From TrEMBL:
Catalytic activity: (6S)-5,6,7,8-tetrahydrofolyl-(gamma-L-Glu)(n) + L-glutamate + ATP = (6S)-5,6,7,8-tetrahydrofolyl-(gamma-L-Glu)(n+1) + ADP + phosphate + H(+)
Similarity comment: family membership: Belongs to the folylpolyglutamate synthase family.
Classification via PROSITE patterns: FOLYLPOLYGLU_SYNT_1, FOLYLPOLYGLU_SYNT_2
EC number assigned by the record: 6.3.2.17
The keyword ATP-binding is assigned to this record: yes
Keywords: ATP-binding, Ligase, Magnesium, Metal-binding, Nucleotide-binding
Cited InterPro entries: Folylpolyglutamate_synth, Folylpolyglutamate_synth_CS, Mur-like_cat_sf, Mur_ligase_C, Mur_ligase_C_dom_sf, Mur_ligase_cen
All copies of domain Mur ligase C-terminal, residue ranges: 286-401
Organism: Lactobacillus hominis DSM 23910 = CRBIP 24.179
GO CC, alphabetical: cytoplasm
Entry keyword Magnesium: yes
An MF annotation (GO) of this entry: tetrahydrofolylpolyglutamate synthase activity
Superkingdom field: Bacteria
Protein name, as recorded: tetrahydrofolate synthase
């Protein structure tokens, strides 16, 4: 079996079960002798910042000399990116081997229950746990797919739990209110396992604090137990130390600070210089990704209100004569609300990739259509914008990781 066939088989599995629980993945993991229990894990949820925090933290743990697994979603450029070991993507041969192991488990379980099957994310999660156990990882950083309580990764008892932030996204699945979303994300808080909270809105902070108290989980809160500022540099400080890191966008400074606070809870040995090297050299795929400096071109997978707001705040602080945005979004996102965040002087270009969920021209409101230019061919529109871009202008590609991933691939092979 070829790796592309394996990936196709995984990605064409059903997306949802009739009931939203963890019984299916628990049965498969039990059949595999519970690989998730054989590796120390850190569990990360949050509306935004999960991926950045995961990369920062895994780089710190790796720098400390530990064999470190990383499970993230979605991938930006290729499927193998989702499962990593020491910053190296899972090989095609191991991906096929893991696929066969999970498929065999499903086949055997079908003998007792012919209707038994896994959905895509369950298969991917089981594959990640199998791989980390197979490779005898010391630690694995596990990013949830959606939510927390009912997420398919929520079968672990981690060393530390993380909630980066809480905002509106996936309201139809884990909402509709921000309070509902906070309660769902609080599901990663486990009995007597410390939890680190990032830039969480005050309106829902009590929900998370109350859950932590109920579980006797100690809480480390950004802005209270540790602080971060971003001026000429990022300055992290807690009661024990002060650290200075290279300048990054404000939202990234939150994620960096959370990752470092979690790392300190693991009590791994790493000098301040090595900590700085690990964090300063971390590049998160598709997140504030500068692919050209002059003229400046940035790719960022921001795809909800909170993430777009953070991106725009950062971009509009850059010295530029014009700000151009190439945006492609999924139609199940808050299109009207997100696109209303752009300034009137921003030049807005809309496009789509060949994907069933990708928004088409008719999905946008008339008010947006009046101020935006649309082209169905994202490569053609991107080329046009790049060729026309002046040295004192900025081009930002955003709206979805699907578009960002497609254009990263296109840019590197054009």
């Amino acid at each position: 079996m070829q790796v592309q066939e394996v990936i196709h088989n995984i990605e064409t599995l059903p997306r949802l079960h009739e009931k939203n629980d963890l019984s299916y993945i628990k049965k498969v993991l039990a059949f595999l002798d519970n690989p998730q229990d054989k590796v120390k894990t850190i569990h990360i949820t949050g509306t935004n910042g999960k991926g950045s925090t995961s990369y920062y933290l895994s780089n710190l743990i790796k720098k400390a000399g530990c064999k470190t697994g990383l499970f993230v979603s979605p991938y930006v450029e290729r499927f193998n990116e989702r499962i990593q070991l020491n910053n190296e993507q899972i090989s095609d041969s191991d991906l096929i081997k893991g696929y066969n192991a999970i498929s065999n488990a499903v086949t055997e379980l079908k003998k007792a229950d012919p209707k038994f099957n896994l959905v895509t994310f369950e298969f991917e999660t089981a594959l990640a746990f199998w791989y980390f156990s197979y490779k005898k990882c010391d630690y694995a950083v596990i990013e949830v797919g959606i939510g927390g309580q009912h997420d398919k990764t929520n079968v672990i008892t981690p060393e530390v739990s993380i909630i980066t932030t809480v905002g509106l996204d996936h309201e139809k699945i884990i909402g509709p209110t921000i309070e509902d979303i906070a309660r769902e994300k609080s599901g990663v808080i486990k009995p007597r396992v410390p939890v680190v909270l990032g830039n969480v809105p005050d309106s829902v902070l009590d929900i998370l604090i109350d859950k932590a108290k109920k579980e006797s989980a100690s809480v480390y809160l950004l802005g209270k137990d540790f602080v971060v500022s971003d001026q000429k540099n990022i300055v992290y400080q807690d009661q024990d130390e002060k650290m200075i890191f290279d300048k990054r966008p404000r939202s990234e400074s939150y994620d960096l600070a959370v990752a470092y606070r979690v790392f300190k809870l693991l009590h791994l040995s790493l000098s301040p210089k090595k900590v700085q090297e690990a964090l300063n050299n971390t590049q998160i795929p598709g997140r504030f990704d500068v692919i050209q400096k002059k003229p400046l071109i940035i790719l960022d997978g921001a795809h909800n209100i909170q993430a777009i707001t953070q991106l725009l705040n950062y971009v509009h602080e850059l010295p530029a004569k014009k700000y151009k945005f190439l945006v492609g979004m999924m139609k199940d996102k808050d299109l009207k609300e997100v696109l209303a965040l752009f300034n009137p002087q921003d030049q807005l270009y809309l496009t789509r990739i060949d994907y069933p969920r990708a928004a088409k021209w008719e999905d946008f409101k008339d008010a947006i259509k009046q101020k935006a230019i649309y082209d169905e061919d994202y490569k053609k529109l991107f080329d046009q914008l790049v060729n026309e871009l002046q040295d004192d202008e900025v081009l930002v590609v955003t709206g979805s990781f699907y578009l960002v991933g497609a254009l990263l691939n296109y840019w590197r092979h054009r």
